[in-house]
Structures are given as structure tokens and as C-alpha cells.
Design goal:
Length: 109
Amino acid sequence: MASTLVISFAIILFSIQTRFDFTICYGVALILVVDLLMFGFFCTFYYSYMADVAYGCLGALLYSLFLMIDCQLLMGTFSYRLNPEEYVNAALMIYLDIILIFLYLLGRR
């Protein structure tokens, strides 16, 4: 739980102060999600401890990228931003990203 907390706060603080726009990375994130799903499908047929560790690390990294993108969308200082009416959805997206980081670090699928 502590590692998820540290990772989440570090990503949120970095996304607040950086000048690089991560909101344009949604296409890359979609491709990485499809790759992670295919890797998870492969891992169901070929069980290995190292594959489980790799799957957990890749999932945590991917949802860390999603957390950074969602935080920058919520702030609205870059090219893509959310309307003020969508702040509840953005808060739910950030909450879901943090929960999924926690679950991938635990090793649960």
C-alpha cells in the first residue's frame, strides 16, 4: 500500500509541474493496453513466476501512464482538457488508476 501511495503522489506531483504534454499519448496508451491484454492472454496458457512479475510490472507502469494523463486532463493546462462538468468522471478515472496500480503491484489479475 505504501508503494502505491508513493508512486501515486510522485506521478501527481510530476504531472503538475512538468511542461511536457502527456495528454497527446492516449493513442500510445491504447496500443499498450492491447499489448498488455495479449500478454495476459499468453500468460494464462504458459504459467511462469517471472511472467507474472513482468505482467504486474507492465500493468503498474501502464496505469501509471494513465494516471499522469488523467491528472493533466483534469488540470486543463495543456492541449486537451476536460469541461468543468466532467470533473466527477475525471476523479473516478484517477481513483480507478490508483486502484489498478495497487492491484497490479499486488499481483492480482
